[in-house]
Design brief:
about 250 residues, six-stranded parallel β-sheet, four-stranded mixed β-sheet, RNA methyltransferase activity, SpoU_MeTrfase, alpha/beta, about 35% helix, single chain, about 20% strand, 10 strands, 9 helices
Length: about 250
Amino acid sequence: MQNQTQIFGLRAIIEAINSGETIDKVFLQKGLRGELSTELESLLRKHAINSSYVPIEKLNRLTKNNHQGAVANISPIAFHNLEDLVMNVVESGKTPLFLLLDQLSDVRNFGAIIRTAECTGVNGIIIQKKGGAPINGDTIKTSAGAVFKVPICKVDHIKDAVFYMQASGIKVIAATEKTDALLYDLSFKEPCAIIMGSEGRGINPSTLKVVDEKAKLPLFGDIESLNVSVACGAFLYEVVRQRTAPLSR
């Protein structure tokens, strides 16, 4: 499966951005100079598009075409507006359930989480514009196509989404080991959003400071953490359990 629709060449990428294409990431040749490269770099900053500077050998591997020092991947999905999505869910009468992903780096973890989110009725997934795994062919395959069914939003920073959720009456819960509270001690029956952290760092400490509640999973083995997609599944199915049956306590 081809990862994404690919475009190459400075002017072509500039035109794609100006025409409103959803650009997932741009690879720029290190040391690139000239008016067009300056214009492209300015557009990338203006639209907060994820980009990285790479050796020319990397670009040559990405495409056999004349790339002129720039290759871009167009996202296979259109992203939703966070404010519109939250408003539509709240007004629908459903009990909102959102998932915030704080810079997950592994596309297969990302895809597995999207698949579980679709199965558990998550109303939307929010990711950060920069620093996270892209939505590419591996993501689509691992999600079993769920990436086309669950609305996904991009924000400048996950904290932006946290504050908006809270302002909309949605409780924000962080899945983190930095707490004494277990997952089963919390109620998920009211509107809520769950934050999952990245594979290595977890949730950004500045984000942890502004959430409403924190919870962790009990671990009885010697390994101190679960794979993030497995942990996310446990959290989401606890939400399902509570919302489909009375709390046991």
